[in-house]
Each structure stands twice: as structure tokens, then as C-alpha cells.
Design brief:
208 residues; mainly alpha; elongated
């Protein structure tokens, strides 16, 4: 019953009975067709819809504020939606609190979860925790490409050499280079001369 042809029937049934099941079926079809915003206009009383369903619908429709306002249940899935919604709203400190909840309540945190926490620390300008977290991150997931790229960017920006250079070797072996790395390599190819030798080869210049 996910075909578009059923939409008029579900919509009519909802208007006639006010049974949210028919509305939910319509919203699923709208979502599958990429017409979430159109479907959201049908909602007149959100309390008739299950919270997790409505929150996911708002999130998928890009209504991140509405998603945040909808979630009240203290679940891992709910905190993931809250964290991601706050990230979309460029509120990393708020997102971090929810990512930390997911991290602490997940048996095997995914590399994506580690990455999001590191990004939140960075975007919150909490450099110390960002460095500590990414060091542990790469030790757990040494082949995760996004982490290696982020690691390389941080190392160059902070002029810091971490204790596990093998991470860079994995990065280079995969042929992955950040723009900063490419620029750094170009700088290393520029020949450097002692000032006196440079002036010796350029008589028109004077050296005090």
C-alpha cells in the first residue's frame, strides 16, 4: 500500500475517521516520493502520531527545530536525531551532549559516532578534548578514511605530531590527501638557501 494511487483513499479515510493510522500511511507514501513537506501540511494534531515516527518525518523533511521540539522520550534513537538536528542548525555544543549520550549507551560505538563527536569538539573550539578523542578514535578505527583525513588536518593546523605516525602511512597508502597536505608537500619542494649564498648569486642585492 505504498503506491501513490492509494493516497486519495488514505487521505479521505483520515478525514472521515480522524484515525491517525490512515494519516501515517499517507505520510509514508509522501516520504517515499520525496514529498515530505507536502505531507507535513496534512498534520493537524501531532499528538495523534507516534513521537518517533513524527520526529523522523520532521528530520527527513529538514524541519530540524520541529524535530527537536517533538522528541521527549529518552532513547538512543531520539538522542541521535537530536544530535544530528543540532548539527544541522550549527549548534555543536548542544549536539555534543546528545552524541555523548549515544556513545555511553551504545555497546559498540560506530566510527561515524566517533567522527561526529570529534567534529563537535572541534566546532566548539574544545581543542584539547578533540585531540584526545581523535587519538583514541584512530587507535580503534585505524582504517576509517574520514578520521584519517580529519587527523591530518588537525595535525597540520595545530602543528602537532601525534604518537602514531602509522595513521598517516595508512592515509597515504590509500592515496588520500587533504588540500593542506598537498600545499604542505609543495612547500617542502621549494629550495631554501642561506641568505649570503643567495646574495652571492644575485650581485644586485645587498646583505647588511
Amino acid at each position: 500500500y505504498t503506491d501513490e494511487k492509494y493516497l486519495p483513499y488514505f487521505n479521505a479515510a483520515y478525514k472521515a475517521t480522524n484515525n491517525y493510522i490512515f494519516l501515517q500511511n499517507s505520510l509514508v507514501i509522501y516520504a517515499l516520493q520525496g514529498r515530505i513537506s507536502e505531507g507535513l501540511k496534512l498534520i493537524t494534531d501531532k499528538d495523534f502520531l507516534p513521537e518517533d515516527f513524527l520526529a523522523q518525518l520532521y528530520y527527513d523533511g529538514g524541519k530540524f527545530r520541529s524535530c527537536i521540539e517533538t522528541i521527549t522520550n529518552d532513547t538512543v534513537q531520539g538522542h541521535m536525531l537530536l544530535a544530528d538536528s543540532y548539527m544541522h542548525l550549527s549548534l555543536p555544543e548542544e549536539a555534543l551532549a546528545h552524541w555523548r549520550y549515544v556513545y555511553q549507551n551504545t555497546e559498540n560505538p560506530s566510527p561515524e559516532l566517533h567522527y561526529n563527536i570529534t567534529r563537535c569538539y572541534l566546532d566548539s573550539n574544545d581543542i584539547e578534548n578533540a585531540v584526545t578523542f581523535i587519538e583514541n578514535f584512530i587507535k580503534v578505527y585505524p582504517d576509517y578514511e574520514l578520521a584519517l583525513i580529519l587527523y591530518g588536518q588537525m595535525a597540520l593546523q595545530l602543528h602537532k605530531t601525534f604518537d602514531f605516525d602509522e595513521a598517516f602511512q595508512v592515509l597515504f597508502a590509500k592515496g588520500l590527501k587533504t588540500l593542506d597536505m598537498i600545499q604542505f608537500e609543495k612547500l617542502r619542494t621549494i629550495p631554501l638557501y642561506e641568505p649570503k649564498k643567495l646574495l652571492y648569486n644575485n650581485p644586485g642585492l645587498s646583505y647588511g
